[in-house]
Amino acid sequence: MTDTLLSVKNLTLNIPTGSGTLKAVRGIDFDLKRGETLSIVGESGSGKSLTSLAVMGLLGKSIKRQADEMRFDDIDLQKANRRVMRDLRGNRIAMIFQEPMTSLNPAYTIGDQLTETLLLHRKVSKAAARARAVELLEKVGITAAESRLSQYPHQLSGGLRQRVMIALALMCEPDLLIADEPTTALDVTIQAQILRLLVDLTREMNMAMILITHDLGVVARVADKVAVMYAGELVETGPASEVFAAPSHPYTRGLLRCIPQPGKTERGAPLGTIPGIVPSLIGDVSGCVFRTRCAHARPECREAIPLRGDASHEFKCVHPDGALSEEGEVA
Amino acid sequence: MLPFILKRLGLALLVALTVSFISFSLLFLSGDPAAALAGETASGEDVEAIRRLYGFDRPMLVQYGEWLFSAVQGDFGESYYFKLPVASLIAERLQVTMLLGVCGILFALLTAVPLGVAAAIRPNSLIDRVALFLSVAGQAMPSFWFGLILIVVFAIQLGWLPPSGAATWRHFIMPTIVLGYYAMPAIMRLTRAGMLDVLNSDFIRTARAKGAGEGRVLFKHALRNAIIPVVSLAAVQMGFMLGGSIVVESVFALHGAGFLAWESIARNDLPTVQALILVFSMFYIVFTFLADVLNAWLDPRMRSS
Amino acid sequence: MTDSTDPLYQEIQGPSPRQMLKLRAFGHKGLLFGMGVVGLLVLIAILAPVLAPHDPYAQSLMNRMVPPVFMGGTWEHPLGTDHLGRDYLSRLIYGARVSLLIGAVAALISGVIGTAMGVAAGYFGGKVDAVVTFLINVRLAMPVVLVALAVVAILGGSLTVVVCVLGLLLWDRFAVVMRASTLQVSRRDYVAAAQVIGASTPRILLTEIMPNIFNNLIVVITLEMAHAILLEAALSFLGLGVQPPTPSWGLMVSEGKNMMLFEPWLVLIPGAVLFVLVLAINLMGDGLRDVTAPEGRS
Q1: Which chain A residue lies closest to C4 (C-alpha atoms)?
Q2: Does the first or last residue of chain A, that is N or C, have fewer Cβ atoms within 10 Å of its Cβ?
Q3: CB within 8 Å: A152 and B300
Q4: What's the pLDDT tens digit per position in B202-218?
Q5: Which of A59, A103, A166, A171 has the most B C-beta neighbours within 10 Å, making it the best mutation to test the interface with B?
Q6: For residue range A158-210, what is the model confidence (pLDDT) as tens digits?
Q7: Which CATH superfamily is domain C27-52+71-292 in?
Q8: Is some CB atom of chain A closer than 8 A to the CB atom of B301?
Q9: In this structure, is residue B40 part of a structural domain?
Q10: What is the domain partition of chain C in residue ranges?
C-alpha cells in the first residue's frame, strides 16, 4: 500500500466546439495522501469541476482527456476499463455534488437510493443495507433516520438532502471523497454545519477529500493543501497554512483580498475585486493566462512562465519572489 | 391524492355533460330533423307524422333531458336504419374497435419508446436520424393511403395477409400497423425529449457516480422519470385513435364501431351517430382521467400531495 | 496595461442574432426542403390554368385509365387518365389548389379562434383561463373525424362547408400553445413595466405580448395547415368531404381505390403528392421552430 492515494500529472482536457478547441484544463499536477484534504479553489469556469469529473471518469463523451499519469492507489485510471471504473465509483471514490435539490432521483425513496450504492458494490442483504443506511443517516445528523428511508427527496429540505448525499457517498466507506462545492447552494447557517460534518467525517474515517470551492474562507478552515486554479491552470499550490500566510501569485492575493478578514479588514473599507473577465480559452493559449487582469503584467508574461517556489509551495509567475508590493493591486 | 382525484373526476363529468349536449344538438344542425329524416320526397303530412312520432315538436331542452336520461341508463334509442337498439348495435361493434385500439397503442408504444430511448442515448447518430425520419414521415402519411399501400403490397402483390375483414388475428395486422403508426411520432418525440432532458440531469450524474452500470442508469434511473409524461400521452393518443378508427376500419372493411359510424353518417342515421360521438368522447374522457390518476401515482411528488 | 495585439485580449466576435438566424435557417436542410417544396406547390396552384395540359373536368370515355408515361403510356397524358378519362396530371395540379386553399383558410379560421382564446386565458388567468381550459378539454374529447363527417353529412359536402367545419374544429392546438406562450411572456418584466406605466390592455396585448409569441404562432399555423389538409383528404376519401367532380387528392385516392387491384398508380400518385405536401409543410414548421428556438432539438 503506497502512501500516495491519488496522483495526477499533466492533466489536459480539451473540448471541441464549433469555433475551435476549448482548452478547458491545461497541464494540471496534484497528488493526495490518504486522509489528506486538498482544496481546489478558483472562480466559476476555471475547470475545477471538470478536473474532479476527470478523476471519476465521468466526463462527457466529447471531452478529450490526456495526462502523463492518473493513478488511484495502484490503479492506472487511464488504462482502467469501464468495469474497473464502475467498481471504483461509489465504492472507493465517492462524490458529492453542488445541487442537493436535483442530485437525488425524484422517483425513488431515500432508502432505495442509499441502499443501491451498497447493494451494487457489496454482497449484503437488503436488510443489512437498510441498517447501514440508518446508521449513516444518524451519523450525518438526521433525526428519525428510520422513517426518512421511505421518504422521497421532494419531502426534504436542501440541507437535509445534502446530508443524504453525504450519507450516500459514505455508504461504502470510500478512500477518497470528492466534494464539488457541497455548500454553495445552501443557506449560510447550513453551510457551516455541512462543512463541519465533512471535516469530522474525513478525520473519523481517515478518508482523503478533494474539496472544490470558490470560497477561500472554507479552505482556510479545512484544507491541508490548496491548489488555486485560474482559467484551466494551477497558478499556485502548497500547504494551506503557507499559501494563506504568504500568497505568491497575484491571482491568489487578489482572491484573498476579496474576503473580509476579522481584525484586518477595516469597517466600511471596500473589499477587493479583480477587474476584467476570464479570457477565452479557445485557440492559442500561451504565457500567463492571468496577465490580462494582472496589475503587474509585463511583456514577458506572454512567454512561457517559469515554475517558482520550492517543491511543496509552487507558483507560476514571471516575478521571482512573488512578494511584490501590493500597490496597484487593489482595484 | 384523493382531493386531486375528486377534482379531476368532477372535471371529467362536466366535460362529458358538455360533449353530450353538443352531440345531441347535432340533430338540430340541419334545421328540421323531422324533414331530414323523412327525406326530400316526403310529403308535409309524413314529416308531421315523423315529428310527432319522435317527439321533435317539443322544446329542445326537454328532448335533450330525456335523451340524456335514457343515455345514462344505456338506452340510446333505436337506429333509424338498422331498426335495432343503438346501444346493442354499438356494444356489438365496439369489440372489434377496442381490440384494434389496444393492438394499435401497444404497437405504437413498443416501437416508439425503444426508438425514442435509442435516439436520446446517441443524439444525431444514425438511429436518431432514422427515428426522426420515421416520425416526420409518420406525421405526414395520410392513414387511408398508408392502409391502401399496405393492401397493395402485402395482400395483393405478396399475398401474405388478407386485405379486409376481421375473421382472424391476421386480419388485424395491417390495421394495427396503420392505426399504431398514427400515434407513434408523438410518443417517440416525447420519449426522446424526456430522455434527453433526464439524461442531462444531476441525479443521473449521481447514479453514475455511485458506480451504476449504463443499463441501470438508463432504465432504472432515467426511463422511470422520462416515461411519466409518455403515459398520459399514450392515453390521449388512445382516445384519438379510437376516434380515428373510422378511417382505418373503412379502408380494411373491419366492421367495428368506426365502420358503423361511417355507415350511419352516410345513411343519416342520427341516433346512432349521436351515440357514437358520445361513446368515443367518453372513451377519451375516461382514458385521460385514468392517465392523470396513474400519472399522479407514478410521480411521488404528486402522490403525496 | 493594455496590449491590443495580445491574443488573450482578442474577443471572439460572434455573429449578431439576426445573422445567427440567417445562418441557422440556411444551414437547416429540412427547412430549406420544406420551404422549397411548399413554394413550388403554391406556384403550381396559382399557375394551374397555365400549367395544366388539359381541362381537369373534361371526360373522355374513349381514353379511360390510360397508364402514366413511365408505365407505357404516352406524353399526351403524362400521368395517365382516371376512370372517366380525365387527365390525371391536370387534376393533380388543380387538386393542389383545393388542398392549399383548405389548409390555409382552415388554419386561418382556427388560428384566429384559438389565438384569441389562448392569449385571453394566458393573460387574464383566473376564470377566463378556467373557461378556456375547460373548452379545450371539451374540444379534445370530441372525435374530430367523426364530428366533421357528421356535420358535413348534415350540411352537405362543399368546399366552403369543409373549410368552415375544419376551421371550427382545429383551434385546440392554437389555444394550448398560445395560452402557454402568453403565460410565459406575461410574467416577464417588460410586461409588468408596461402595466406600471399605465398602458391599456389592448396595447399591451398588441405591442408586448403578440410580437413575443409570434414565432410560436407561425409554427402552429404551419402544423395545423398540414393537419387540415390531411383531414380534408380523409373526409373526401370517405366520400363526405369535397364532392366530385372537384379534383381533391383525397377524392382521387378514393376514386382510384376500386381499380387498385389492376391500376395501383391511380392510388399511389395522388397519395404520394399529398404525402409530399404535408411532409414539406411539417418540415417547414419543425424547421421554423428549430431556427427560432434552437434549444428545441439538441
Answers
A1: A292
A2: N
A3: yes
A4: 899 999 998 888 889 98
A5: A103
A6: 888 888 998 899 898 899 999 988 887 777 787 888 888 888 888 888 899 99
A7: MetI-like (1.10.3720.10)
A8: yes
A9: yes
A10: 27-52+71-292
